[in-house]
Amino acid sequence: MNDLQFYIKDFKAVITNVPIGYLQLVKRHHYQTLWTYFANCILGLFLLTQPFLFDYKSQALVYSDSVCGVLIILFEFFAFTPTLAQLRWLVPAVAFWLLLAPFI
After folding, report:
1. Which of 36, 49, 55, 104 is 20–30 Å from 16 (CA)?
2. Cα distance between the two ends of the chain
3. What's the total number of domains in the chain?
């Protein structure tokens, strides 16, 4: 790592008032748990194809599951980078909608 990158990291840590070691710990944890992002993308892909595999009777559920599958894939895809990892918290909101959608 060259000196400029080190100073930029040090400046970011000072601005955010977070120790540099903590930022490195968060980044390492992010890279160690990347498999969960892939697993959710696969589940989102299954959710996207599920209406066509199981011949849904309700057209509203077809749209709901397809849109939710696309949203899960997009949120997880963008959350692959450590700077956008907070987007991953939108996936439980989509899951909550999936729980309630059949009753609406």
Report:
1. 36
2. 54
3. 1
